[in-house]
Amino acid sequence: MTIDDVAGYLRLNREVVLRKARKGEIPAVKVGAKTYRFYKEQVDEWLRSRSTVNRESPIYPLGVKGHTSKKDLSPVVKEAATRAEAEKAATSNRERQLFVLRQAEALRARIERRVGKPLNSSAKEIRALREERARRGS
To answer: Which of 9, 28, 61, 112 could bond to 21 as cystine, CB 3.0-4.6 Å?
Structure first.
């Protein structure tokens, strides 16, 4: 399928589909420099994986059914916060460091794909030229 086919199929704007393909959010195959192609089966699977409705048993936010007030939700929110704190404490400092390092490497790769490799620092060359100019001037 082409970008226009997928956009029509998902009822999304063409640019939204293109942006999601570039970011890798939707499964796509890059053909050439600017062209993307999509497999209908992969798009259907992606759509199913993003579905928030489970047809066998409905999912309710925070496990609460029906109309609720903030007072009703407070124990559920506290339990979720406590669970999140426990998970955070369980994650070691080393794992966090590795996670941040992977994020930095991914960001560097994205920048290189978008802009190209960064230029080497020219500070040493500039300093040497200034020193030479200062020597000639004295």
So the answer is: 28
